[in-house]
Structure formats: C-alpha cells, structure tokens
Design a protein that fits this description.
Layout: H1 2-38, H2 46-50, H3 60-82, H4 90-113, H5 117-141, H6 143-169
Helix pairs in contact: 1-3, 1-4, 3-6, 4-5, 5-6
Amino acid sequence: MRGYGQVTTKQHLRGAFIRWAIVLVPAVLMLGILSGRLANSGYGNPWFDALAKPAFMPPGWAFGLVWTLLYIMMGFAIALIVAAQGAKRRGRAIALFVVQLALNLAWSPLFFAAHRVSAALVLILVLIVLAGVTLLAFARIRPVAGTLMLPYLAWLLFAATLNFAIDRANPNAETLAPGSARTQINR
C-alpha cells in the first residue's frame, strides 16, 4: 500500500498546484497589465515618446509580449511554491515574492506616470536584488519554480540597462512636459 500513498500524494500535490495556478497565474498577469495601463506605459505616452531612447530599445510590441510571458511564468512559479505545503521556508519565499511583485508593479507608475526616471532606476536595482533572492528561495523549495523566475531576472537586468540609458540621455526627463517636442522650428 506504500506505493498507493505516494501516488495519492503526487496527485494531491498536482491538484493543489493546478488549483493555485488557476487563481495565481491570471492574478499576477492582471496585476501587471493593470499597473501598466494605469501608468500609460510604453509608446503612445506623449512624455515617453518625447524621450531620447537608446539604439537597442526594442519595439513597443515586444514589451507587451515579453511582460505577458514573464507574468504568466511568475504566476506558475508562485503557484508551485504556494502548493508546496509543509515545505521549509515556504512562507518566507511567498513573502519575498509578494514584496518583489509590489516593487515590480510600482515601477511603471514611477517611471511612466510620475516621470521619475532616476528613482525608477533605483527601484529596479532593488527589484533585481529581491527577484534574485526570491529566485533562490524558490529554487530551494521547487527547482522548477526557480527556473521559471530566471527569464524574469534576465529581463529585469535588460530593463535596468534601458532605464539607465534613458536616464543618461534625458537628464531633464522629470521636468519634460508631457507631449513637449524636442525639435525647434526655425522661422
């Protein structure tokens, strides 16, 4: 009967993961979308469109695609951890995820709505550290959950590089009026 108990346990864990994933994947994705929409993130934001951007800036559609995939992967990662009932340091890993997600959701309003490019850079650097610590905490509990967080950490590093380049190229970004053009018209 020992084998039967192990199968039941695996089925129970799989069922718990599926139940949590059904809730957490859409929740994380919707929170990410909401943060971006409320902040008027990306191209089409007159203030952002007026900023000088680095040559390695991806096209606008890439951000929506990448962030959608990353939020889905993050949702699956946290679902794996929440479903790992009885795992050591599970509560700490969940708390780390919540804190880093809150910082993630705060970045778009800080950058795109408040126009605080330098402050957003500091925020994303703190976020990178927290995301890395979260990844390690997840990997200790469920290695797959840590692996699911790797692309997110890589993208955060790239996003920080973009944020830094935009900050350097736009020292007056905070004072740039939304929609103001950077060109001069000669009469």
